[in-house]
Amino acid sequence: MTRDKINIVIGGEAGQGLVTVGYLLTKAAVRSGYSVVVTQSYQSRIRGGHNTYAIRISADGVAAPQEAIDLLIALDEDTLNLHRGELARDACVIAGSEFRDAGDSRLLQVPYKDLASPRQLNIVALGVAAEMLGLGEDLVARTTEDYFGKKNKEVEENRDALRKAFEWSRQSRMASFQGPNKVASPQKRVMLNGSEALALGAISAGLKFAAFYPMTPSTPINLALISHAKKMGLVVEQAEDEIAAINMAIGASYAGAPSMVATSGGGFALMVEGVSLAGMTETPVVIVVGQRPAPATGLPTRTEQADLEFVLHAGHGEFPRAVFAPGTIEECFHIARKAFDLAERAQGPVFILMDQFLADSYRAVAPFTVDGLTAVRAGADPNSVAQPYKRYAVTESGVSPRLLPGLSKHLVVVDSDEHTEDGHLTEDLAVRKVMVEKRLRKMDIIRKDVIPPSYDGEEKPEALLVSWGSTKGSVQEAAEKLGGRRVATMHFSQVWPLIPDHFIPRMKNAGQVVCIEGNATGQLARLIRRETGFNIEKHVRRYDGLPMTPESILRDIRL
């Protein structure tokens, strides 16, 4: 027998190769046509501790993680002890033959030491699990070779370990274990996580410079950019700190290179003066904030959605901004493109809120269509600019012609102090008032291009589940499981500015509105009340460092 969806959890200590097993198993599943959702949970340490790599796969599509475990791959005994209570009734556990708990009928004990050398133990675990899931040996072997390289000296050892693992598993597997349904006609898809998709979207939008200081969970974005830098003509600079990183990006953008910084809350705290600099100098820059539990260092490798208000108000003074919050891998790609376009058109900072869950979560996505996609063009045509050139010329839209220094006969003057139209500092208070109003008029450009929240369900539901960012898939699945009720969902992929006409009529048509967020204070709900007066009275909030799941929503929701 088979089942529609299956949840695999690989657990062990950092350094045991569990991420390698998880990545290769996920890759093989994607190549077999399955949909996947990966959840990585790891401690902030190089070796030791307890880490997990969860893969939920389905032949028919899946968009959320799952708590109940159908197949547990325990690389140490702690994994079995810690997750025993999460096992589904018909679950199977793959563990070493040396484990003491041999009385559990769900335990499939693998003689790792008889099948391979200590270096290949994780490859044996991969082979046993792959056979139980119905993934072909040749496919898994090719996937492994693609990962390690075909000329690697361990290729033959890995191949031999896989062969023995498949043979042993065919003879010893649990007959009662139900694998996933087969995919009848596998479609070509790529395996990407949120970090990789966002990086690719930025590159396709014309990114030419990125500066960063390493900080979980944003570092993978920068590593993805580095992997493509030479081929795509990018400069990716590891700065001495986050202050230097954002100032480098602003300087590069001023010179004409579309620029980005990616950081986390603690790093962004150091960048906020630079955010105001971009606002005053009207310099385009895209800022990605990968959210994690805080304050201070908090839980550096876990997930949360608690930086919305921080990002919304970061930087001293008043100036326009937009804040995006992608909810899927596809949105990570397309919103990155939109952020660069908007930053250039509105000439200022644009923010993308990610979090650890989405940043590290692999999914199977259809290849992006890149034909016809255009990149941003930095700066205006010097021939179209009236003389004498005024960098901050007062215009009806608030947007002034932005020329790049050194590329024309015009002198480009910018100033971090309040300035006149030609860019020179001033303390003329009448000019100050004009310039504040000029900058704020650019907010109209941002408002005209806001992404409306997506809506799925009946026009007058009994309950409307509202979410933003990475909780999208879990909220949608929870809505599907609330049987017997008319339930709709609304998801915000852009959380600032808010356009009341986009969502308030639907909220008023719902019997109950429930806001589902990964923070303790209901930041989106508070923002909606502040901007519209509409009070969302019911909430589901999670702030223990774990991602929102359909199960956690259904446990806490009160309708």
Name given to the CATH homologous superfamily of the largest domain: Pyruvate-ferredoxin oxidoreductase, PFOR, domain III
Helical stretch count? 19
Class computed from helices, strands and strand pairing: alpha/beta
Low-confidence stretches: none
Give a brief description.
This protein is of the alpha/beta class and 559 residues long. It contains 19 helices and 22 strands. It folds into 4 domains: 179 residues, Pyruvate-ferredoxin Oxidoreductase, domain 3 (3-Layer(aba) Sandwich), CATH 3.40.920.10; 167 residues, 3-Layer(aba) Sandwich (Rossmann fold); 70 residues, no CATH class; 103 residues, Rossmann fold, CATH 3.40.50.920.
What report would you give on this structure?
It is a single chain. This protein is α/β, with parallel strands linked by helices. It folds into 4 domains: 2-180, 3-Layer(aba) Sandwich (Pyruvate-ferredoxin Oxidoreductase, domain 3), CATH 3.40.920.10; 199-365, 3-Layer(aba) Sandwich (Rossmann fold), CATH 3.40.50; 379-448, no CATH class; 454-556, 3-Layer(aba) Sandwich (Rossmann fold). Helices cover 36% and strands 21% of the residues. Strands 11-10-12-13-15-14-20 form a 7-stranded mixed β-sheet, sandwiched between helices. It has a 6-stranded mixed β-sheet with strand order 3-4-2-5-6-7, sandwiched between helices. The chain has a 5-stranded mixed β-sheet with strand order 17-19-18-21-22, with helices on both faces. Strand 18, helix 16 and strand 19 form a beta-alpha-beta unit. The chain is globular. It starts with a strand and ends with a helix. The mean pLDDT is 95.
